[in-house]
Structures are given as C-alpha cells and as structure tokens.
Amino acid sequence: MANLRADNLSGSGGRNAIDGSVAFTSDNGYLSVTLDTIGTSDFTIEWWFKAQDRTEPGTANRRMFRLGANNATGGMSINYDAVNNDIQWNYDATGLFNASTIKIYDNSWYHIAAVREGTGSNETKLYINGVLSDTGTLATDFTQTALQIGWDSTLGDDFGFYGNISNLRVTKRALYTAAFTPPTEKLRGVVDTILLCCQDSNDVTVDAVGNTITSHGNPKATKITPSVGVDAGVTFDGSIKINTQGVMYFPTGATEQRGRGRGVFSGGFGYQPSATFDNKIQYLQIQSQGNTIDFGDLTVGRSSIGNASSSTRGINGGGYTESPATARFNVIDYITFQTTGNATDFGDLPTAKQTGPGACGSNTRGIITWGGSTGSKVNTIDYITIATTGNATDFGDSTIASSNGAKCSSPTRGIKGAGWISAPINLIEYLTIATTGNATDFGDLLTTQYGGRSSSSATRCVWGGGGTPTATNAITFVEIATTGNSVDFGDLIEVRIANSSVGNSIRGIFAGGYNPSPSVVWKNTMDFVNIASTGNASDFGDASTSSRNMGGFSDSHGGLS
C-alpha cells in the first residue's frame, strides 16, 4: 500500500514555481548590497515587478534598480515612470532609453530584462515580457558596486518604488539575444551570476549566490508572485471530496489546465481622434486586476472578428473595415497564449464576413463564426480544428440570419445570444460542439439587443452591455445545460454597445465599447463579474485603446473547463 507523502507534494506551479517577492511599501524602504564589478562585460539584469497605483504630487520616477549614486560615473538606474507609463534606463548622467516603447501600467506583473551583448559592439536591448522594446549601444565601464533596490537614498522620497519585485538576477552574460518567453520558474544562479534575490517568501535579505543584503525601512517578504508557471508536481483531476473523516478523494484533471488565465483582445474599431481599424493585440491576466499589455499585431487590422480558443491557441476569423472603403475578410490567423508576438496565418473562411466575437468551442474544436454579415446577413456556421492550420469547414446553419450576436460555451454546448437583422433581436440558440448540424432554439434574452458580449463558466453564460437599440449596462445569464430565457444578473459600471469580453470560468471581463448618446464616446473601461454569483460589475482596469468590437478569447474560458 502506497503512502501519499505530504513533503513531496507541490503547490501551484510545481516545486520550481516562483513563490516569493519583496513588497516595497514606503518612500524610503529599500534593499542594499555590494556587487562584484560588472565592468565592460556582457550582462543581463532582470526581474519581475508589479507597481502599486499611487496618486501624489512630485516626480513619478519610481526607482527599482540603482547601481551607484544618482548620475554617478560608472553607474546606472532603471526606473518606472508612473505618469508616462514607461521604463527609463539611465547610465552616468545620460538617458540610454528615456522612455520605453512598450507601455507599463500599475497593478499588472511585468518581466523586464536589460541586456548588453557583444564585447566591442556593446549592443544594448531592453525586453519587456520577453518582447524587444528598445535597442541601443552602451560601452560604459560599470565600476560602481553599491546597489540599491526599491529606492535611491541620494534622492527625495518621491523616488521610492511602491509595489512588488520578484526574482531579481544580475548575470555577467547576455542571456537573452532575441525575443523570448519570460521565465515561469524561480530563477537559478547560472554561470557568472553576481546577484539573485527577492525570491524568498520569508526573508528579504536572502541572496542565492551569497551576497549580504541589508534591509532599510520596511520591505516585506511576501508570497505575492506573477501568475506564471505550470504545475510540474503531482496532479489530480476534479474537486476534492471528503467521504468520511478517514477518506478523502483528490481532484483529477490534466496538468495543462493549471496556471492559465490569460485573456486576449484583438483588433477593433476606434473613432477618437479618427477612424482606425486596429491590428493591435493586447492581453491581461484574468485572475488579477490592471490594464492591458501589448501582445503583438494581427496579420490584418480589422473589427468584428470571430474568435475561438483552446488552452494554448487563440484564433481570429474574418472581420471588416469601412475606411477608406468597406471591406470584409476571410482571413484566419492565430496566436499562442504563453508567448507574445504577431499573429500567424491559419487559413481562410469559406466566405469573407464580419461576425460576432466571443470564444466558443472546446479544447479541440472552435466555432469560429456563427452568423454574421457578408454585406447581407447570413446564417452560416463555420468551425476549425484548433491544433491544426487550414481552412474553416461548414458546421450547419443558425436558426436565423443575423449579425452582432455574442457566443460562449461549455465543454459540450455552444451558445449564441442577441444580434441584429434590421433591428435588435432577443434570440438565444445553441449547438453541440462535437457534432455538426443546425443550431436549435434555446430561449430569449430579457430584452432585444445587439452588440453585447458574453463570458461563461462550464455551466453558466453571462451577457453584458449591448444596444436595445439604446445602449444598456444590463447583465443577464442562463444555465447552459438547460433551455429557457435569460435572468437578470446585475449591471456593468457603464452603459455601452459593442464591448468585448474574455473570461476564465470564474470571472467574466467586459472591455471597451461605445455609448452613442448624447454624443458618441468610445470606452477603454474594463469591468468584471464573478460568473457563479449575481451582482453588479467591479472595476478591473483599462484597455490600452478606446475601441469597440474587439475580438476576445482566453486560454481558460468555459468551454475548456
């Protein structure tokens, strides 16, 4: 009879997961350490950080890393500018990168890597979340050895960093020479590592390579960490169940279901200050709160894209533009969730059309379009096999030809609600994902509407926003396994039409959209609900653009539960 050893179990992310950070909570709280000299060697300086939102007068340059006194010859500093939302990298008295091209926002985790490579060429690169942000040349001999983390004691209180720093490593090697996937495990001391700290959840002074770190003020060791990593330890499937006081049934399920929670918005239509059909892809971590982060670009900028996703891939199908002339697309492209970068060609739709966004499908099959418009409303439904590439295949027909509906799913059923024919409709219909055939009537929404969006758990589908035709903030829901009419859930923070949505089976997030009355106002608002409950939405953060009809999908929606 085998024994289950408690000392051999691993938590979220496995035994090598990131499990600690340092919280900096006052203007003059910081860590100090004396480093070996970097000199003229290659180097990599990297860490994870999450800045805390603050509002007060004075400079916004939150100093995270300061080698040598301010502007000292042979020193450098790396700052977060909380007003301009960027990274500043300075050396001596010079700004190497005064403002990173990739934006940074409060309350979200980022991985940053400052790299110098190639003795002689001294090429310098700044990576944010593994994406190359800025390049330059830096031949400086870094002779300074006094490092401060979280503040610069030679400057005023306003230069203190508020937030968390995790897994800070300084290595006299160029570890990253091209775009990369940020580390998902606790960093280790590779060859030529001269500092590795801020990774112990109990002690801020621990350094894995033996340096003496001194704590000033009140930095705190915490278990607040980036939402990354894959569970590499023992895994169980399902819910834990206790049958008696002596018997416990552990959960079951695939390891790849753990550590997910990335939501992605793609494309969209912005109208302020001018009409723009965007190719931007942006993402967020659903289980946290904060603003979206740049992911990359679509192969074609467009709006009203049909979406599907598995736990690893997100798919964009179709879409349209109307400036300088109306055009509809049959393009399908895809992204891989755990990396960042531009979308890749997948195949084509049978016809060029705009459709309703929303991740619908299972982990293997995506319902990429469900109705839509080719110039005229259509009732066609198309699907793809997500793990492959190729053209979409006919699934069947919707019960009615309409556009601007919103779809979501359980692992077995796809649901579509609302839409537009020549006016808003209140139709809800469903299909069985693993088969092919026509959709079936499910029931009715509380009101006729179009342009709202939905998110789901494995059991419940929630709609938020839309036009009746007047913009609304209403949220309604249905239980997916049944049929019937939707039920009142609560209200979004703002009324809006053509918003977008992502979810992770627990939370549904609604983003962007516009309110046409009394004058058109485009939104970058994001709010969220807990799908299993009812009630009004809460603020999540802001999308990086004010846009409507963005595509939306995630690696953990209701169809993947």
Search tags:
disordered N terminus, 3 domains, single chain, Jelly Rolls, 7-stranded antiparallel sheet, 8-stranded antiparallel sheet, Neuraminidase, elongated
Write structural notes for this entry.
- Mean pLDDT is 87; it is low at 1-13, 55-59, 230-244 and 249-258.
- This protein has 561 residues and is mainly beta.
- Helix content is 0%, strand content 43%.
- It has three domains: 6-11 and 229-256, no CATH class; 21-222, Jelly Rolls, CATH 2.60.120; 270-560, Neuraminidase, CATH 2.120.10.
- The chain starts with 20 loop residues before the first strand and ends in a 7-residue tail after the last strand.
- The protein is elongated, with a radius of gyration of 25 Å.
- Strand 25 and strand 26 form a beta hairpin.
- The relative contact order is 0.12.
- Strands 1, 3, 8, 9, 10, 12, 13 and 15 form an eight-stranded antiparallel sheet that branches. Strands 7-6-5-4-11-2-14 form a seven-stranded antiparallel sheet, with no helix packed on it. The chain has a four-stranded antiparallel sheet with strand order 22-21-18-46, with no helix packed on it.
